[in-house]
Every structure is written in C-alpha cells, then in structure tokens.
Specification:
221 residues, alpha+beta, 5-stranded antiparallel beta sheet, 19% strand
C-alpha cells in the first residue's frame, strides 16, 4: 500500500458563481472574480479544504459515520475523522499539542485541455466571455424604492466544471498518530470525504444570494 493516495474533486457549478479577489474595477465593478495569471477563474485549495472540513465535521456530528471504525485510538492518536484527516482544529493549543492533517487540496481549475486552450495568447479575447457583471441595489423597506448610491456591481463567472487534486498521505511525527494515519490509508479513506460531499451545495461568495450552487463528486486522476 502506497503512503500517498490521490483523487480528484470535481465541482460542477449549476449557475453563476463568484470567488472574490478583493479587487474592484473603478465605478464599473465593486467586486472582481479571482483569476490566475492567464485571467482564468479558479477556487483556492484553502477555501475548498475549509468547506470539506466543515462538511466532515457536520457529518460526524450527525452520526453519518457510525458504521465506520476510526483506526486505533491510542494515546496521541486522533479521536475523530475530522482531526485525523484535517489536523488540529485550533491553533490556540501549544506548539507540541497540534498535529498536521493527512489531506492536501490543490486549487480547483478548468480541465487541463480547456485550460491549455484558453491560456494561449491567441485566445485572450475569448476569456472575457467567461464572466458577466451582475448589478444590485438596496431597497428601502418603507418606500420600496432603491436607496441612493447603493448600486453595486459584482463580476460573476459562468457555470463551468473545475477540478482539484486531493492527496492523502502520512504526516505525523508522533509514533501513535503515524500508525493511525497508515491504518487510515489502508482502509477506504475516501468514503469519509465522499459521504460528506452532499453537505456542500454551494462554493464561493454570496451563497445566500443564490450564487455558487454546485454539485461535488470524487473521481480518479
């Protein structure tokens, strides 16, 4: 059994989505989408890892893993699937009391063939069609009219499919935790992630406003 396992997380966006870059475009747009050096959209691995961790935590709290056995729990080993896969939940613990997780998440990008095509210099004019501006105003609850100076523009990306590589590997320095991590790799660790994926129904910002609705699934490389 290899000490490193790989899968691909596929994100199928069902409509417009927005991952913020923290930048605007003058009076035209208040929020631009996050783009790479070629102007192509992506979702950071850090954000995806946070969503996955939150989903696994909820699934575990709700008893979704009752039929699954956590590898041996000797002193120094993780006591939950969340802490085993993602590491210590808080950085407030002492330096020698924290542990690294097993899961590593890359940025989610377009499929390799699509990415290679669109990043080419001669396709620069096509990239603009991956995005649309959306405008909204705040409505006065008493008058039912738009509040002055409340117009905001948000750049959104068109629905696409993005792919992020997931890697599971042993990272522990502590002997008991290292044994537990190896046992986890020898079981079927991806079922922990897969069971929690339905709990993620949107990715990116403004999810409460209907942006980022998506379907997530695991596939092989």
């Amino acid at each position: 059994m290899s000490d490193t396992l790989h899968r691909v997380l596929r994100i199928d966006f069902q409509g417009f989505w927005h991952v913020g870059s923290g930048k605007g475009r003058g009076h035209y747009l208040d929020e631009e989408c996050l783009k790479d050096n070629y102007g192509l959209p992506y979702v950071s691995g850090k954000q995806l890892k946070g969503l996955l961790r939150h989903a696994v935590r909820r699934a575990e709290d709700w008893g979704w893993y009752q039929e699954l056995k956590l590898p041996q729990q000797n002193e120094g080993a993780a006591t939950t699937f969340e802490s085993l896969l993602f590491g210590s939940a808080s950085q407030q613990e002492g330096r020698f009391e924290t542990s690294a997780g097993m899961l590593f998440v890359d940025n989610a990008t377009l499929k390799a063939e699509e990415y290679e095509f669109l990043k080419a210099a001669e396709q620069a004019s096509l990239r603009q069609y991956l995005y649309e501006p959306l405008y909204s105003t705040r409505i006065d609850s008493e008058t039912g009219t738009a509040v002055d100076m409340s117009l905001r523009g948000t750049e959104v990306a068109l629905p696409v499919s993005l792919y992020a590589e997931l890697t599971l590997k042993t990272t522990a320095l502590d002997e008991q935790l290292a044994i537990q991590q190896k046992e986890m790799l020898e079981s079927n660790p991806w079922q922990i992630i897969e069971k929690a994926l339905p709990l993620i129904d949107a990715v990116g910002a403004h999810r409460s406003r209907g942006l980022g609705e998506s379907v997530l699934s695991l596939t092989t490389l």
